């Protein structure tokens, strides 16, 4: 038996071509939507998935202001953050984070609620910090990424 012929093939960066997808978040449940988006960002729907390699696709989420939360999570769930200073613990509800997404000083495509939820679903390392940059979230139905020719993806068809 020739054990040298059993080579493990690894994906290469030049072979991977990241696609762009547009997902409509209208009347979608936030957690279920973000769980599927996290799989797309990681590349778990691709046959060449590798956990240590950035092989996912780019995702554009439109109509983020029309996303749903079940129960009383819109007002009762609390997200904590810390400024790094004594007494600097801040708390915000999803309702506050959605209102904050309409502020002009927030960078376009960076929705505070979606970033908070997606950070919990991606790995807590360099790859996770780079993957969160491949997600672009917009409150309206328009986005500035038409040059990338994104495909419209129905999120309900994914498992």
Description:
- With 159 residues, the chain is of the alpha/beta class.
- Helices cover 25% and strands 14% of the residues.
- It has five helices and six strands, in the order βαβαββαααββ.
- Strands 5-2-1-6 form a four-stranded parallel β-sheet, covered by helices on one side.
- Strand 3 and strand 4 (89-92) form a beta hairpin.
- Helix 1 (30-42) crosses helix 4 (112-121).
- The longest helix has 13 residues, at 30-42.
- The protein is globular, with a radius of gyration of 18 Å.
- The relative contact order is 0.22.
- The model has no long low-confidence stretch (mean pLDDT 91).
Give the terminus-to-terminus CA distance: 40 Å
| Principal-axis shape | globular
Q: Sheet with the most strands? A: 4 strands, parallel
Structural class determined from secondary elements: alpha/beta
**Largest sheet: spatial strand order:** 5-2-1-6
Radius of gyration: 18 Å
Number of separate helices: 5
Low-confidence stretches: none
Number of strands: 6
Q: What proportion strand?
A: 5-15%
């Amino acid at each position: 038996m020739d054990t040298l012929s059993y080579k493990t093939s690894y994906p290469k960066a030049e072979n991977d071509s990241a696609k762009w997808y547009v997902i409509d978040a209208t009347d979608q449940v936030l957690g279920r939507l973000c769980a599927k988006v996290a799989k797309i960002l990681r590349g778990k729907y691709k046959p060449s998935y590798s956990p240590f390699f950035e092989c996912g696709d780019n995702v554009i989420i439109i109509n983020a202001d029309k996303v749903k939360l079940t129960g009383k999570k819109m007002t009762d769930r609390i997200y904590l953050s810390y400024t790094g200073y004594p007494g600097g613990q801040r708390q915000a509800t999803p309702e506050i984070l959605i209102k904050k997404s309409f502020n002009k000083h927030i960078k376009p495509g960076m929705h505070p609620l979606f970033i908070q939820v997606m950070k919990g679903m991606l790995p807590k390392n360099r790859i996770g910090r780079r993957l969160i940059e491949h997600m672009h979230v917009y409150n309206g139905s328009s986005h500035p990424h038409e040059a990338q020719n994104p495909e419209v993806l129905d999120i309900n068809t994914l498992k």
